[in-house]
Amino acid sequence: MKSVGVIFLIILVGLAVGGYIFLNGEQTEPIRYRTALVERGTVESVVSATGTINPVVSVQVGTQVSGMIKSLHADFNTRVKAGQIVAVIDPEPFKARREQAASNLEMARAAAAKARADLAQRKRELERLQSLLANQFVSQNEVDVAITNYESAEAQVRVAEAQVRQAQAALDAAELELKYTVIRSPVDGIVVARNVEVGQTVAASFSTPNLFLIALDLTKMQVDTNVSESDIGGITEGMGATFTVDAYSGAQFHGVIRQVRLAPITVQNVVTYNVVVGVDNQDLRLRPGMTANVAIVVARKDNVLKVPNAALRFRPPQKDRAEYKEQRGRSSSGGNPVNSGGTASSSLEQGKTIWKVGADGEPEVVMIQTGISDGSWTEVVEGSVREGDAVIVGIESPRQDRKASELPPGFGGGRRSR
């Protein structure tokens, strides 16, 4: 009897536990959807890019001769005029070369004078022998030798004159190099960069060293930005653009696209194109080298229906997707659950899907044709949606997924069905 009582007690306990689990255990909770309203307003399609602010025209000032910087007459932010001296290279070595070239020129001129005197002597000898030959006082051979000497003297004069011109060219080159030791600004502008110091030696043997960078006009700037190949198709010259810089938080600057360059820029197989945005900088707040975050409006539509992009990305559970396929099958055979007008256009059949909560609480599919998008909202070109309709943008998290701290006391870390 005692064992029967134990067994009976165990059965009672099991029934009690089973009943508790049945009444208070995990239960399937209906899916609750998050919705958003279809609105009417403005949609802007914007291309974003990052660029660098540069002067419209900047000139690199270099040197054509090598030597030591003797003095500097311009520094950072110095305003200079065209022809103004900005630096001087030590001219002493070039003065010595000029004096040497001048001496060589004098020697060449003296040699030419000597050659002309020799030519005159050869000419007199030839004329004398030719007069004696008429009276047969000299032989023909002596006359021939005199002719040869005269022609040789003529050639020597031409050589001497060529040497004079060569020496003159060398002197001109030496004077030009001496002139190049004084470096002048080629334009009116402001010095943006200075790359040399007094006493530094610059070498112009292989490439021209850059001593200064002079911006022609800082009141007119440009933003050189790179736009990806997927966005470049909608960008044309004359479009407006806005940008911000980190130096002025909250300030927005406006510009106009001046040029869309055709040359592609490929970096790690990513193709971009340089878009130049012209900017007015009368207050000189924008400085060369600043990083600009550029936004280019490629399309804008006002007072249009628009839906959140989250509604276009939403996909219901597998069961609802199967019902949606069945709805589309009925639509193609004569029914039309999508377009309230009674006829499903080919544009809608090739459009995108959004979902609304039906009267029974289940999602209903709606086909729409979309237009431009601003990244958050998308224009609705065609479809059976109206302003104020609630479309599904997601599924709310189940209640049992809440943190234990949100549950009533006494339930610990376990999940409670509601």
Reported by name, the CATH topology of the domain at 33-42 and 304-399 is conserved putative lor/sdh protein from methanococcus maripaludis s2 fold
What is the global morphology? elongated
SSE series: HEEEEEEHHEEEEEEEEEHHHEEEE
Extended strand count:
19
Q: Any idea of the CATH class of the domain at 33-42 and 304-399?
A: Mainly Beta
Biggest β-sheet: count, sense, barrel?
6 strands, antiparallel, barrel
Fraction of residues in helix: 25-40%
- Structural category is alpha+beta
- Biggest sheet strand order reads 2-11-14-13-12-15
Total number of helical segments?
6
- Which spans have pLDDT < 50 for at least 5 consecutive residues? 329-345, 399-418
The CATH architecture of the domain at 33-42 and 304-399 is Beta Barrel
The overall pLDDT, averaged over residues, is 83
Computed Rg: 46 Å
CA-CA gap between termini = 43 Å
Quaternary state, please?
single chain
Amount of beta strand? 25-35%
List key phrases describing it.
single chain, 418 residues, alpha+beta, conserved putative lor/sdh protein from methanococcus maripaludis s2 fold, Helix Hairpins, six-stranded antiparallel barrel, 6 helices, 19 strands, disordered C terminus
Report on the architecture of this protein.
- The protein is an alpha+beta fold and 418 residues long.
- Among the domains are: 33-42 and 304-399, conserved putative lor/sdh protein from methanococcus maripaludis s2 fold (Beta Barrel); 93-180, Orthogonal Bundle (Helix Hairpins).
- Helices cover 31% and strands 35% of the residues.
- The protein has helices spanning 2-24, 92-134, 140-180, 309-313, 318-332, 346-349; strands at 33-37, 39-55, 58-62, 67-72, 79-80, 85-89, 182-184, 189-194, 201-202, 210-215, 220-228, 240-245, 253-267, 270-280, 291-308, 352-357, 363-373, 377-383, 390-395.
- The strands form four sheets. Strands 2-11-14-13-12-15 form a six-stranded antiparallel barrel.
- The longest helix has 43 residues, at 92-134.
- The protein is elongated.
- Residues 329-345 and 399-418 have low confidence and may be disordered.
